[in-house]
Amino acid sequence: xxxxxxxxxxxxxxxxxxxxxxxxxxxxxxxxxxxxxxxxxxxxxxxxxxxxxxxxxxxxxxxxxxxxxxxxxxxxxxxxxxxxxxxxxxxxxxxxxxxxxxxxxxxxxxxxxxxxxxxxxxxxxxx
Length: 127
Known about the structure:
The protein is an all-alpha fold and 127 residues long. The protein has one domain (4-125). It is built from five helices and no strands. α3 (63-92) crosses α4 (98-112). The model has no long low-confidence stretch (mean pLDDT 91).
């Protein structure tokens, strides 16, 4: 059975992922794809930290104790997303235009990091 905690994590993770994705899309008007991924990821991280700490894991620890662990987990997640987005982009560009390739590759990469992020945040960041 799936726990309520995991369901809330997925819900708020989707919210953070949407912020990540649409922020990247907006930044893409002004910056290259790779730089836009970085800025989008930072926007998503802010939403994720606030919602995961307060609404998912209901941690009562002082935020400064958890922020470094959170950043570490998200750096691991970012590397996963950055590398996977770029690998998928080169796969999709053979079949789609640039914008479609960027959107598909980034969306799939962001979604693929959900399970590992839950495990790391539950047992490392907010334990």
